[in-house]
Amino acid sequence: MIKKTFYNLPKEKQERIVNAVRKEFSKEPQEKASINRIIKEANISRGSFYQYFDDKVDLIELLVGDLFSQISNYYIELLSKNDGNIFTVSILLYDKTVELIDEKGDADFVKNILSGIRVNSELVYNYLYHRFSKENATDKIREIIKDYINPKYLNCKDFEEIVIVVEIIHMVIQGALVDVFARKTNKDKARETMRRKIELLKKGFEAKNL
Predict the structure, then answer these.
(1) Are 59 and 109 in contact (CB under 8 A)?
(2) Residue 206: what are its φ and ψ, rounded to 5°?
(3) 150: helix, strand or coil
(4) What Rg, from alpha-carbon coordinates, does the chain have?
(5) 3-class DSSP state for residue 66?
(6) Most CB within 10 Å of its CB: which of 25, 111, 164, 168?
(7) Do residues 142 and 163 lie in contact, with contact meaning Cβ atoms separated by under 8 Å?
(8) How far is CA 25 from CA 65, 113, 180, 195, 204, in A?
(9) Longest dimension (CA), the chain
(10) CA 111, 132, 195: angle at the middle one, nearest 5?
(11) How far apart are CA 118 and CA 124, in angstroms?
């Protein structure tokens, strides 16, 4: 868990540490990333490092959290502009996420994080499940669904069914991003494959009275 002592640091020092973390994880996958190189690059002591962070997973959270926050803001903006139509927005969100990662220069970082993820790995279990899904993302996603996704476009009987459908669509988007940044699939090819999957989902989940 990222500690309050990190957020109490001057902004300049926070940015120096974040840049050192980004540089290391852009060069190396999670299992090979070196805390020694990070503290040397950030010009902090090992003792100081552990006053700010518990482990390397915290460092991933530091970078991924900022990226996810920006993606969430785009998600809300796109839903607001497209009448809450999740099927339309799914393609636009993929485009915006790819654009954002490229603009931030985070492609290598994202590739290394995604490449290090394996089913039942400690990273997936500790980070994606406990830290992200259970604590922050689930509540945030449910808020977005409740406030911005228009149920008229979905053939669902209640809110929980809408949540399940949206989770499935999110998995399709995430799969396309893994293809692009971890497997180096052509962006347009990954987009087209994702679009076809979304079209198949529409056949089963789109409201029939539109």
Answers:
(1) no
(2) -75, 140
(3) coil
(4) 19
(5) helix
(6) 25
(7) yes
(8) 15, 8, 18, 31, 40
(9) 63
(10) 55
(11) 7
How far apart, in whole angstroms, are the C-alpha atoms of residue 74 and residue 49? 32
Determine contact, residues 194/173, Cβ cutoff 8 Å: yes
Per-residue pLDDT tens over the stretch 45-69: 999 999 999 988 888 888 887 788 8
176: Cβ–Cβ under 8 A, 6 or more apart, which residues?
94, 190, 191, 193, 194
For residue range 54-111, what is the model confidence (pLDDT) as tens digits?
988 888 888 887 788 888 899 999 999 999 999 999 999 999 999 998 887 788 888 8
Task: Work out the number of other CB atoms within 10 angstroms of the CB of residue 57.
Answer: 18
Instruction: Please spell the DSSP secondary structure of 95-135, one letter per residue.
Output: HHHHHHHHHHT-HHHHHHHHHT--TT-HHIIIIIIIIIIII
Tokens for 96, please give them.
Answer: 């915006």
What residues are paired with 154 via a beta bridge? 206
d(CA 90, CA 75): 9
